[in-house]
Design a protein that fits this description.
By secondary structure, the chain is mainly β. Helix content is about 0%, strand content about 50%.
Length: about 130
């Protein structure tokens, strides 16, 4: 089992920045692909960004390319999502997810991930 805990969400004005963290306990992030997803009530959970193991490959959803950066510190079992130039449409609950045993490109589909955090709210005011 991998337990994931997100932190770093909050309220920020448009144009501002936040850094989300996702800390793993239990079994580590070793060989795990890690993804960030976001959810707005009434909509599906959308892919935001993902990192392969050990972090050489990253992927981003088109709406966040150039603004968000996913990174990971495998020694600390922590994954980050740096979010810059935030927009009101970035408002959502952000979740991190992990799937162990992935050596290639990280999945961009939520159903492919085995472990999920509880989510952290990000609210961007206009």
């Amino acid at each position: 089992q991998v337990q994931l805990v997100e932190s770093g969400g909050g309220l920020v004005q448009a144009g501002g920045s936040l850094r989300l963290s996702c800390a793993a306990s239990g079994r580590t992030f070793s060989t795990a692909a890690v993804g960030w997803f976001r959810h707005v009530p009434g909509k599906e959970r959308d892919f935001v960004a993902a990192s392969s193991w050990p972090g050489f490959s990253t992927q981003y959803a088109d709406p966040v390319k150039g603004r968000f950066t996913i990174s990971r510190d495998n020694a600390k079992n922590t994954v980050y999502l740096q979010m810059n130039s935030l927009k009101p449409e970035d408002t959502a609950v952000y979740y991190c997810a992990a799937k162990r045993g992935v050596w290639g490109v990280a999945p961009e589909v939520a159903s492919k991930y085995d472990y999920w955090g509880q989510g952290t709210q990000v609210t961007v005011s206009s």
